Amino acid sequence: MPGFSSGGVGGGVGGPASTPPRPFRPSRYVPVSAAALFLVGSTTLFFCFTCPWLSDYLSAVIPFYIAVVFLFTLANFCMATFMDPGVFPRAEEDEDKEDDFRAPLYKTVEIRGIQVRMKWCSTCRFYRPPRCSHCSVCDNCVEDFDHHCPWVNNCIGRRNYRYFFLFLLSLTTHIVNVFGFGLVFVLHHREQLDTAHAAVTMAVMCVAGLFFVPVAGLTGFHMVLVARGRTTNEQVTGKFRGGVNPFTNGCVKNISHMLCSSQAPRYVGRLRGPQKAEVQPPFLRPALTEAQLEAKVLDNGLQNDRHSNRSKSSLEQLESQSADVEPPPPPKPELRYPGLPRADTEESSLLTVAPPTPSMYKYRPAFNSPSKNHTAHAHPNKMMMMMRGESLDTPSPSILQSSRQPGYRSEPSSLDGAAAPGRGAGPRRGGGGGGERGEGPGGPVVGVHVGGVAAGGVSGYSLAGRSYTSYPSSLVLSAGGSYASSVRTAHTPHSALPTLQSEGTTDTSYKSLANQTPRNGSLSYDSLPTPSESPEFESAAHELSPPKPPPHCGFHAAAGAAVSPPPMGGAGGPLQGYTSPFLSAQIAQQREGQLFQGSASFSSPHRAYLRAVSPTPPSSGPPETHQLLQHSKDSAPWSPRASPPSFFPSSPPSSSSPRARSLEPPVSPPPRGPSLGKSQSYGAEAAGAGQPKGRPAGPGVPGGGPRAPQSTSRPGSSNHAISKPGGGVKKVTGVGGTTYEISV
Amino acid sequence: MATEFHNLQELRHSASLVNKVFVQRDYSEGTTCKFQTKFPSELESRVERTLFEETVKTLNNFYAEAEKIGAHSYLEACVACSTAYLVFLCMETRYEKVLKKIAKYIQEQNEKVYAPRGLLITDPIDRGMRVIEISIYEDRGSSGSSSASSSTSGSTAR
User: Residue A39 CB: number of other CB atoms within 10 A?
Assistant: First the structure.
């Protein structure tokens, strides 16, 4: 039981994936013990000293009523304390076959049309489902994580939120009862206040009065949360500020779901099921016709095209343009399952084939780069994004060749039912190619190809391929405009990767980095000032200021792709920190464009990279992160801030994830590339949105300009070049004080 | 000839785990439990698409039934409240009942459909309801080369 696990018992229950034992920390039990003591002690005193008189003087029903309320409070308190909040068991090794450091840190999924980011949990080894968060106190990922409550010494999550809420309600009622009836007693014993009974009653009243204010406040707060369908985590991190909450079903339904839904099952500590069926050869095989085989090559069985891969359009274009493609390298032998392509992992199934060398994805030199590329190409169904350890050195040809693959550019296909629409589209993975190109010194050259192609808002692949090895850990990769890939820079030290997330793309930030710094941000009240990993949602719209004309026309990615900056979108309104975490599709697309801009070239120390100069210094942690993300979005690849002063000057360590700021949704959906389809993917949208002016969504700097000043405070609003440090380099201030240099 | 029989018998009992496919959750409609019905490419040559989709759709229906909020769930909530949740000690919740049905269904599907094809489905509840894990087995007797080549060719074909 999470509530009272102690010593080595914590991980004992359940199967192999249960949590490891945690050290015994007595200090954790102080608040819960105090709470229990006050509750039980005060009520007992009340019953002993006040209730006899009440039953005599008023009615016998009163103590009975008070007792019922008290028992109800106690029951809920116990349930909230001892019930498993919805802990996810650790993922088994097989789910994450690929090396951590090569996997993107984020995956995007679309929920009711809103892009939601799922972050890789390095401790639990899976991508956190929406609304899930990792509690650092309990060291577990919790489903529908609300907060960690020290007063019950337990996380509040999906399974026990109802009991926690009822505990608050009943406790408030109980406090009111005790105070009220104690007051009646005292008023009737004004002349006998020196008696023990009156003194005790007054003491109990004091305790009750003291606790009434915070408890009632918390109760009111949670009433509002339930009505709005939010969790504390989401509320405090401002995920839906000004945005749309995809998890709400309306006030009445939210309440009924919270109170009356069937008790969710626990995931850890379950009894093993019945014996598995025995698998013995010979095995039946379905007949495969030629047509099926051929179709197999072209179509990944994507059934729902809703998400038509954001970056598809750009990918398609890229593919069409790629003239020469090198043959894919031989597949790397599967470590765990010899003879199998490495892409067959959970993550790979989630992600489209990754580009061979997207600089954004690689944080470290990939060990398996050749195979990665190969697998990327080999599996059209896979996301184009190379998640893990794509070799950074993959030359542009790999990109081109990836473009041939009918891969998915972004992962959404596996993530959501819709899956990247582009999946099935034959050799359309130009976007993937684009992404792949991230690596390698030939970035700019490569970028040209990619940029041009990535009109469709391919998720952000950095235009200028730069080997990741040169990236500092805190590199921020923003996919170039048309590349919608979510760029998550690995920001290991801060565990906040300000990666922008393009639709359905896994962030480039790497799991490896995330795994290095296990940030289990649990949003306990104690840690409210520095929310941990919460902002997984990209608050796109709000944070972005109204569309601004691309500050620098020079938003030309090194690749030379001219990406029209995504329209700032309908002014989401000034947003601080994380505003609406959920991006509308349009925003996502815009962001993709921006991401593309800010991608890979991050490692490039040269001016060639566009950087948006952020006009406003980040006001707080999350905003900074957002700003950073926006920066990345706005700017084309920019030199890593890390090398100079930390890129995110004030990003608080706990604020984890560099959640991409929400992009402003464009006022009207921008015209999309053909491959965009209906899903509002970042990539596509970004590409499309990025070009209200009709500029082709080039990779690289699509939205750099308009996006740059997305923070609410856009002092400089500048997407304009602030200075010209070098020859032909414009400086643009992005959100959060980041300066972007744009080569003109 | 006796040697051949011997080899066949050996082959008969060899099936080695070759790969695992993970069917992810479909979050397009929110956090309700639903799995993607997209047919994984790795299973192209192993099982018919319709069978797979049928399995996943049935599972999705089960989960929808478990999470449905209706008269049954209201009643359960009221009873639980009124007994100070002590009823959970004796009675099974609706969700647990459906999970048992699901486990039975998966067992049956494994026996009838998937095991004969060298596949095994793992109950998603064992993975925290995040994925449906499908293990792919190969005939060890047919030697790893064939499986490797098939997988390689399959991958290139993709």
Answer: 21
CA dihedral A394, A400, A406, A408 (to 10 degrees): 60
Residue A300 has a pLDDT of 58
DSSP classification of residue A112:
T
Q: 3-class SS at A506?
A: coil
pLDDT recorded at residue A62:
92
Q: What is the pLDDT of residues A37-60, one digit of tens each?
A: 999 999 999 999 999 999 988 889
Three-state DSSP class for residue A437: coil
CA-nearest residue of chain A to B37? Answer: A417
Q: Would you call A166 and B81 a contact, using CB atoms and an 8 Å cutoff? A: yes
User: For residue B139, what pLDDT band results from cuts at 50, 70 and 90?
Assistant: confident
| ipTM for the predicted complex | 0.84
Determine, for residues A263 and B95 on separate chains, whether the beta-carbon distance falls below 8 Å.
Answer: yes
Instruction: Please say if the pLDDT value at position A217 is more than 90.
Output: yes
Q: Which residue has the higher pLDDT, A171 or A384?
A: A171
Closest CA to A385 of A599, A169, A186: A599
Number of alpha carbons in the 13 Å side-chain half-sphere of residue A374: 21
User: Percent of chain A at pLDDT above 70?
Assistant: 34
Separation CA A252–CA A513 (nearest Å): 42
φ, ψ of residue A372 to 5 degrees: the values are -60, -50
B67 φ, ψ (degrees, to nearest 5) = -95, 5
Q: Residues A742, A554: contact at Cβ < 8 Å? A: yes
pTM: 0.56
The 8 Å CB, 24+ separation contacts for A640-645 are A640/A471, A640/A472, A640/A474, A640/A475, A640/A476, A640/A489, A640/A602, A640/A603, A640/A605, A641/A474, A641/A476, A641/A738, A642/A472, A642/A473, A642/A474, A642/A475, A643/A472, A643/A605
How distant is the Cα of B67 from the closest Cα of chain A, in angstroms? 6
- Say how far residue B37 (Cα) sits from the centre of its chain: 12
Distance CA A506, CA A479 (A): 11
Whether A95 and chain B come into contact, CB under 8 Å, resolves to: yes
- Give Cα A128 to chain centroid, integer Å: 8
Which residues of chain A neighbour B148 with C-beta distances below 8 Å?
Answer: 338-340
